[in-house]
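Ticket closed. Logging final result for Diacylglycerol lipase-alpha.
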Amino acid sequence: MPGIVVFRRRWSVGSDDLVLPAVFLFLLHTTWFVILSVVLFGLVYSPNETCSLNLVDHGRGYLGILLSCMIAEVAIIWLSMRGSILYTEPRDSMQYVLYVRLAILVIEFVYAIVGIVWLTQYYSSCNDLTAKSVTLGMCLERGWGTFRGVCITVLCVFDPTGRTFVKLRATKRRQRNLRTYNLRHRLEEGQASSWTRRLKVFLCCTRTKDSQSDAYSEIAYLFAEFFRDLDIVPSDIIAGLVLLRQRQRAKRSAVLDEANNDILAFLSGMPVTRNTKYLDLKNAQEMQRYKEVCYYMLFALAAYGWPIYLMRKPTCGLCRLARSCSCCCLCPSRPRYAPSVTIEEDNCCGCNAIAIRRHFLDENMTSVDIVYTSCHDAVYETPFYVAVDHDKKKVVISIRGTLSPKDALTDLTGDAERLPVEGHHGTWLGHKGMVLSAEYIKKKLEQEMVLSQAFGRDLGRGTKHYGLIVVGHSLGAGTAAILSFLLRPQYPSLKCFAYSPPGGLLSEDAMEYSKEFVTAVVLGKDLVPRQVEK
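Final structure:
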């Protein structure tokens, strides 16, 4: 449904979204009408008290206002329930009913001010406690409570580009091409500014860097371009998702009812068709691959640090971390890490690095040595760690998934970006935020010579000849897959395990090439990897 146009401006609410608010206000005003009627006509007031007589006159006027509100709200309910999502003509007169309701609201404010004047004149001298209580209720609850509600509602549904949107639509009808282009440009700029403000409010508690400001602009223009020609409101998206789900269920039922197809079921863990292939765990090679997938998932989980550790160990995890952690302000002389471990930007207690180490100790993986841990978290700069697994004879790079609002900005920067792989033209494209994150990690590995340290960790045990594994989950999975492209020229035997990589991560030709060294793992109907599934 399109946004309603009131005062020659489009608002971020549809004319059929007003049913529930109007019902709520109608019930509230009905309650006040009954209470005020009982107070005014059911109680006896002293004829000698001027304040009481003024209250009765004021209250009768307020009863008229409440009755007018109830009539207007019934009209809003009736109009809002007419038509359908796309058939809006029966609701065209809604704006005029809203004008009437707003006029009544102005009168309410005037009566609230009159009530305040009454309180200042008679509150101390008036002996009628009932009169005082009723007037206070009308002024504070009805008058200023309504004022606060209106302010909050206007802030929620105000569209900064609403007037430009209406002008653009009117100009399109008159077919003025140059004027249309200028208005379209203004609309896109205004929507981008609006999205930028929303993102800044969402991340108001984080320190802003240049890369974060660039991400604001990238995401704002992405959303502005997507919603530029769509006259929809937030409730449309919810209704669309519900209808899409209903259509999907109906379509699946129809497919299953057909007798001339091979579709058996649409359930996870069951064959969809008669040709569905499963891992043959009796095959030694496939069993080994399955075990590898399960094994390296532990490395991907460990990258989340202390939050995932406490979630997996809710009873004893905190005690284990507390024994190992030592805040610099409490125990500054107590060493927290082995000298050979490089830690970057962990918190004062070293909780993330300790949690990664405890994660492997709890799994009896004592042969895993942590070489480098980066807890630095910024837009396009994802935390990661590097470990040496002596049992498997592998060096493992594990990249953290989405855990902070900055990671969410990286996720949302979804433009296509060329993969910076030497010797290949620009047909290999990837998710921009994850390409930039992969470039950051590669640069960090080279500057700190992390992989050289890892492969030279214990030459006596042959670490120089260990293989390289790159793993990650969610955002980390996408970054790991792209990082594998960047590192493969130096490490041709590299393998990547990407757990729930985001959909739309790579262009088709890059995806085909990645099959040689990337194993993507998708659990059931996970939305993240299946969001652009054909």
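Residues 3-159 form one domain. No further action required.
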